[in-house]
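Journal club side-thread
Mid-discussion, someone asked how the predicted structure for our own chain would compare to the paper's figures. Pasting it here so we can look after the session.
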Amino acid sequence: MKGVGFIGLGNMGGALASRLIGKVPLTVYDLNSELAMSWDKPEITVAKDLRELSRKCEIVLLCLPTSQDVSGVLIESNGISSSLRAGSLIIDMTTGDPGVTRNLSKCVSSFDISFIDAPVSGGPRGAREGSIAILVGGSKVEFKRAEKILRFISSNVIHAGSVGAGHSAKLGNNLLNLICRMGTYEVVSMLVKEGIKPSDAVSIIQKSSGRNYATEITLPDNILSGKMHQGFSTSLMEKDSSLALQMGASNDMEMALGTVANVLLERTIARYGRDADMSSVANLFEVETGARIRP
């Protein structure tokens, strides 16, 4: 296996990269040097900068907050595209903008470098357990090349289509997640006001036709447990939902449900801030409905 690099070791990136330890010659980098040095282990090389990583690796995975961050790493001043070997492969696991992704693919191709998008869905828990969905956008040839490395991370690797299709699918999924989340909190709040315990309301829905990720994972693991930490910020969800709505608008779709869900997300941000965990949506519904969901 040729050298493999991983850039971005945050909540999601760190969980994904951990699946590669001991399976490939792994070099990692994060802008947060203290976080990066916590990865200093015999089987891992911690690069002091991006240039060092690009010299050691021919396959580079990234998991960064936005497509603009990816662009900065790849093609802006001191970007790694000019220092990677010809024939290298970049796998972008960021939840990004499909349009920017397609442009980046064209830009790096001038260096004889392949670029695919491979965003993930299933949260840090799914990443750690190796069950997370990886949605890949790229040619069949590039997908085959990336598949081996991606299957070290998860058994659930799906070819969504050409470059950008992975990011399109992820944005659609995240908007649907937001719609289901807001609808679930609304109905659970209503049932609590009807005298049903929150845990019973969630359990009933989960065993019925209204079940969804919020009743299966979000509420039991993060809200009803009292943990109130999902590891995904309101600002990141806003970024994803806004991009999804823009995608809908570009296809002449009204996106009525997505728009309403996004309005509720904006109210959450206005009250709790852009750095708040998405679990704070539960707090918003408690304040606005008077129904106590948390323990």
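Post-session note: The CA atoms of residues 224 and 294 lie 5 Å apart.
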